[in-house]
């Protein structure tokens, strides 16, 4: 029977043996001037004695001083990605970093590689991935990147910061169910988007947990036009009293279709959106929705990357969206 492979030394092991904090070890390894010469010699003696070799992320900080973070994004007119990028840029600037941004022309693996090469040419120290399509993410995972990377996603994979889309979707459905709605439909985003799939999963999970019927999601593409089309196709044979729209824009389009059918919200149908765009509170009626804290996401993204550059650990707990109740939801008439 083979002996289990020994765990590799990390920065905390050195800190424990040397009797100092891991931040002090990190400063010594990165040549910081904020460490006294006696402390530097003390820590270096333990580094040498233990045979510890700083990992790539620590070396990147000491050898590459571009103070630039690369962002791989997908072209989008949607408010969500744009809001996230703004929050990331502000957090990076506060930390003394700038962004180098490139947009994918397509989800083709060759274009993903070309975009990464472009960012490498700008000597970026780390990489943020704001690409929501599954094919592009799969192409990215096949590349051997030698810099810290973080993907903004919906799952629990390594190097992924999560705005918990499943929890947000479950909160939306739970709100409708607790009001007394038993027939709840979902207007979903495009199937190629990881976020859309996660919101579908949350919709199904919450209904199943409550023993309520699960309906095939209505197809959408995040836009108000697709929500309007979903409304036109479903309201003629209305067999539901609750709607969970995968975005506020799709909720807006659905509400327009309701007005054309003479359906009153929330008397006849309750509607919940997702994102909590600033305009949501000015819909008619004001939209109940799921709020996503993009500012916190941007802050955590930068803190995560800076910790990786220093060879430190970082808490990757997901950010929980929260329900914002306004006037588009109420108990069904037959309750």
Automatic annotation (TrEMBL):
| Magnesium in keyword set | no
**Keyword Secreted attached:** no
> Can you give the residue ranges of the HTH lacI-type domain?
9-63
- PROSITE patterns membership: HTH_CROC1, HTH_LACI_1, HTH_LACI_2
Q: Which domain of life does the protein's organism represent?
A: Bacteria
* InterPro entries (alphabetical): Cro/C1-type_HTH (IPR001387), HTH_LacI (IPR000843), LacI/GalR-like_sensor (IPR046335), Lambda_DNA-bd_dom_sf (IPR010982), Peripla_BP_I (IPR028082)
Q: Where is the HTH cro/C1-type domain?
A: 5-39
**Segment forming the signal sequence:** none
Q: Which GO terms describe its molecular function?
A: DNA-binding transcription factor activity; transcription cis-regulatory region binding
Keywords attached to this entry: DNA-binding, Transcription, Transcription regulation
Q: Which SUPFAM superfamilies match?
A: lambda repressor-like DNA-binding domains (SSF47413), Periplasmic binding protein-like I (SSF53822)
UniProt-recorded name of the protein: Uncharacterized protein
What is the native source organism of this protein?
Subtercola boreus
């Amino acid at each position: 029977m083979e002996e289990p492979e020994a765990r590799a030394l990390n920065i905390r092991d050195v800190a424990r043996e040397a009797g100092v904090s891991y931040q002090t070890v990190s400063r010594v390894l990165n040549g910081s001037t904020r460490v006294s010469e006696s402390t530097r010699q003390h820590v270096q003696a333990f580094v040498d004695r233990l045979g510890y070799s700083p990992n790539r992320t620590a070396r990147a900080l000491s050898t590459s001083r571009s103070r630039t973070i690369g962002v791989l994004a997908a072209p989008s007119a949607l408010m969500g990605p744009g809001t996230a990028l703004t929050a990331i840029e502000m957090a990076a600037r506060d930390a003394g970093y700038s962004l180098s941004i490139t947009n994918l022309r397509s989800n083709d693996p060759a274009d993903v590689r070309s975009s990464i090469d472009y960012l490498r040419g700008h000597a970026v120290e780390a990489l943020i991935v704001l690409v929501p399509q599954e094919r592009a993410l799969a192409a990215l995972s096949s590349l051997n990147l030698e810099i810290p990377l973080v993907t903004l996603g919906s799952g629990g994979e390594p190097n992924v910061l999560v705005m918990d889309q499943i929890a947000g979707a479950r909160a939306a459905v739970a709100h409708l169910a607790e009001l007394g709605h038993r027939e709840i439909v979902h207007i979903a985003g495009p199937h190629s988007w990881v976020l859309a799939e996660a919101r579908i999963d949350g919709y199904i999970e919450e209904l199943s947990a409550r023993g309520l019927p699960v309906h095939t999601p209505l197809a959408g593409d995040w836009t108000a036009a697709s929500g309007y089309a979903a409304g036109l196709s479903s309201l003629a044979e209305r067999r539901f009293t609750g709607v969970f729209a995968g975005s506020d824009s799709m909720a807006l389009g659905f509400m327009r279709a309701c007005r054309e059918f003479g359906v009153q919200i929330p008397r006849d149908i309750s509607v919940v959106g997702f994102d909590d765009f600033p305009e949501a509170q000015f819909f008619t009626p004001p939209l109940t929705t799921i709020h996503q804290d993009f500012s916190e996401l941007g802050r955590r993204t930068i803190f995560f990357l800076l910790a990786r550059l220093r060879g430190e650990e970082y808490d990757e707990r997901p950010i929980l969206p929260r329900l914002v109740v306004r006037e588009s939801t109420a108990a069904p008439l037959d309750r």
